[in-house]
Amino acid sequence: MIESAVGALVKPGCKELCGNVRIPYPFGIGADCSLNKGFVVFCDETFRPPATTLTSIDREVLDISLDRNDHHVRIKVTSEDDRDDTGTGIAVDFRGSPFMFSKMNGNYTKRVEYFPAVLDWAITDEEALRLPNRDGNAFACYQFNFSQYVPGTMRSGQQCFCSDGYEGSPYLPNGCEDIDECNDPRYNFTCPADSICVNKVGSYACEPKQGKKAWPIIWGKTRIFRFFF
């Protein structure tokens, strides 16, 4: 079962899922739901489960992640794909797309039916400058240089991430929303018996119950703890 994120992941009126694959913006099912033609996804519901194809490179999508620690797309590469000389062992035409093979792939030399290949991706610097709410605290964008370069493809771009304590798509207006860590079952956070959990914007805290005093101690960006006496 795929858990829903707190913040917005798709444009209004657009589908979030194609079968079991979540399609977060800037990707989108159809041109009206994506940032540009490079991120268009075709959802073929004649298959069971539906087949998800990234049309700019004509490859089936296995997974899309906006996570700071896993900002990648995983595609299915089959044994029918020709070999190349870029060090990946497989050939995909990335010209005109925002994608390139990630250095996480290594070198594939064995013939298999199919395997998941990891792609790096980014938006252009111009697209990043046009993002709404860029001056807020909910997200930030960073320069990203592709580990490989093929003529006709992007050399660098911007990758954007929701700030700690926020979740959603930073590419959408108000897409990064505050996480309520006190009530979100994924965090399973509990406070000591003499305190209660209170959600903060971008963080949370253990507040003293009535009659208690506390000295606040902040640890990291999203956790606030207090000593009681």
TrEMBL record:
<dbReference type="Pfam" id="PF07645">
    <property type="entry name" value="EGF_CA"/>
</dbReference>
<dbReference type="GO" id="GO:0030247">
    <property type="term" value="F:polysaccharide binding"/>
</dbReference>
<feature type="domain" description="NOTCH1 EGF-like calcium-binding">
    <location>
        <begin position="178"/>
        <end position="211"/>
    </location>
</feature>
<keyword id="KW-1015">Disulfide bond</keyword>
<protein>
    <recommendedName>
        <fullName>Wall-associated receptor kinase galacturonan-binding domain-containing protein</fullName>
    </recommendedName>
</protein>
<dbReference type="InterPro" id="IPR025287">
    <property type="entry name" value="WAK_GUB"/>
</dbReference>
<keyword id="KW-0472">Membrane</keyword>
<dbReference type="InterPro" id="IPR018097">
    <property type="entry name" value="EGF_Ca-bd_CS"/>
</dbReference>
<dbReference type="Pfam" id="PF13947">
    <property type="entry name" value="GUB_WAK_bind"/>
</dbReference>
<dbReference type="InterPro" id="IPR049883">
    <property type="entry name" value="NOTCH1_EGF-like"/>
</dbReference>
<keyword id="KW-1133">Transmembrane helix</keyword>
<keyword id="KW-0812">Transmembrane</keyword>
<dbReference type="GO" id="GO:0005509">
    <property type="term" value="F:calcium ion binding"/>
</dbReference>
<feature type="domain" description="Wall-associated receptor kinase galacturonan-binding">
    <location>
        <begin position="14"/>
        <end position="70"/>
    </location>
</feature>
<keyword id="KW-0732">Signal</keyword>
<dbReference type="GO" id="GO:0016020">
    <property type="term" value="C:membrane"/>
</dbReference>
